[in-house]
Amino acid sequence: MGILFFIAVQIVQTAFLYSNDGVGWFKTVYVLAGWSSVAVSFAVFAQGWLLFSHKLSRHRLYTAALFLSLAVFDFLQTVSLLGIPLFGFALNQDDAMWLLIISKGACALGLLSIYNLKDTMVSITHKRFAFMITSAVIVFGVLAFFLWHQKLPLLMNHGSINWLKKYLDLVIIAVCLIGIGSIMYRGRKDRAPSLLIIIRALIYSALGQGLMMTANHTYQWNYLLGTLSGGVAYYLMLKGVYRLTIEDPFREQQRVEARMNYLAFHDDLTGLPNKRRLTQRISSKIKNTGHEMTGVVVFNVNRFKNINDSLGHQAGDRILQLVGDRLKRNTRSREEVFSMGADEFAIILPALAGVEEGMERIRYLLKLFEKPVVIEENDYHITLCAGMAVFPQDGDTAEELIQHADTAVHHAKDYGVDVRHFVPSMQMKAKERLRLENDLRKAIEREEFYLEYQPLVHLESSEIVGMEALLRWRHPKRGFVSPAEFIPLAEESGLIVPLGEWVLRTACMQNKKWQQAGYKPICVSINLSMRQFLQPQLAERIGSILEEIGLDPKYVELEITESMTFDKETAFDQLRRLKQLGVFISIDDFGTGYSSLHYLKNMPIDRLKIDRSFVHEVMSDHNDAAIVSTIASMAHHLQLKVTAEGVENEEQLHFLKEQRCHEGQGYYFSKPISPEDFERTFLLN
Length: 685
Hints:
Layout: H1 2-12, H2 23-50, H3 58-82, H4 93-114, H5 124-148, E1 156-157, E2 160-161, H6 163-184, H7 195-214, H8 221-265, H9 275-288, E3 294-301, H10 304-311, H11 313-329, E4 336-341, E5 344-349, H12 355-367, E6 373-375, E7 378-380, E8 384-391, H13 398-415, E9 419-421, H14 424-446, E10 449-458, E11 464-475, E12 479-481, H15 483-493, H16 496-516, E13 523-527, H17 530-533, H18 538-549, E14 556-561, H19 568-581, E15 584-590, H20 597-600, E16 607-610, H21 612-616, H22 622-637, E17 641-645, H23 650-658, E18 663-665, H24 675-683
Parallel strand pairs: 8-9, 11-13, 13-14, 14-15, 15-16, 16-17, 17-18
Antiparallel strand pairs: 1-2, 3-5, 3-8, 4-5, 6-7, 10-11, 10-18, 11-12
Helix pairs in contact: 2-3, 2-8, 3-4, 3-5, 4-6, 6-7, 7-8, 10-11, 13-14, 14-15, 16-18, 18-19
């Protein structure tokens, strides 16, 4: 467009020849253009210097300093056109032309220098230093010009522009083009979008000097349009500095605020609205819908901690994303899905006809997860449980409804059911659970835990071949606390790791003590928790404990559950390292998990323990009998020992012998008993 404009001027100017009658008009336009340049230059200085002064950069600071200098010289040039004497010196039109050349040359050279510097943040001290240098340069430049302006060569001969002026114009054009090339150079790594405006300013500045070069007199259209083009270049610089100092920081601030607002009300992992937004939405519905029944449902991913620990956090995060997406895709138009953080989600069920309608809707959503989720081309079966609180009967504030729904879902999880509707008694249980967790932390310090031992009996010979160490807790006020109560709490809180190590050390020390007393050496079985099993240095730690106690590893059996082998690669690696110690490995509660027979055949284990739930009904339930028979047969073919748990009567014992189970464990032989009773009852005999 600039080139076309330049050509058009050459064509049009033939219609407007120079005329003495037009001198006054031209002069007026030059004066107006001069004052405009002064105003724009000062505006560039003000924007770069005064606004956002705590976020100064080199480009901004030096551009502001440059245009402060240009404003002074443009002011002097405009005054020269008017013929007004300054400091006792009378300036003429040739002086005005020299001031214009100085201004345009300084502008081109300054922009070339500034925008080839690396743009970095500068301090307020640097700003003050730059201001002092700029002021000194301006004062020195003005004084030098006034002292030596009469010695400068003429740029005009008898009213016509001479070759020196055209040569200086050409130099300025060259500097502008070099500046454009250096800014656009591909090798530059730090090119901001606002630099495009600087390039445009340099283009118009070069175009203006080009138009002036083609003019032979200042009162020709080419020279006038060149002056105006230079004014456009100044305006573009003003626009560039405005964008750099005001628009870009403002937009960046808006972007940051929008991002902060999004993060404040959305979960970053799933992209769903978060608990804060849930509270707002429930409060809004309570306020606007009167007494319309509204359900608040909290979903919890079952066994998520085990999944997260076994598959890794990346896979765990992916599961949460898939769960959130599946819930969102299957909600109705007025229902809303939220992320509660961790492994919990929430849904608002508006306009319920009754509690049962809400429960049916929840059951439908839970059935969505009968289909497995796919992670890295592997299928994983996950389940959810849910708790619901209903407005207004279960609470009249958002906080109460969310808390009660959360209480209900944990109640459902504790009792192994899919969904629960909140009832006040649940809150008492939640408080009791919290108190129990606090007492659990103190119990380790107060040594309130102890071990009991249950014998492992060889079914054919009735000989004691081993024992299982079982953790017990005697609370100072509550008395005996069931392991079914405190073990899950220890798992959730992470206390299971130090507690599990205490069990291992205590059981091994007891076994070594009995061996030193001269009793027949037998193997002690110790349960490992998921958190223990996933410890990177577990094998080294166990080896260190056994070496410290002096117990041969062949007298230790470690029991794991099927769920611990969820991540096959990690589980196999851990099992191999444990086997290298010389200990035995058994899979406890076999048949209740999701073990793959394909992996089972290669797993470095020694024993399968049939879960008591199958043994209990083995005489009355043909399915249980078939399961026990199948597991026993499979164990024999895999050359594994098989142990039946929960043996309680003679009939069960006879059936298990027929299935060629190697060992049995249960109340038929003995309940778990203290070390003293175990020694007296089994070891002495």
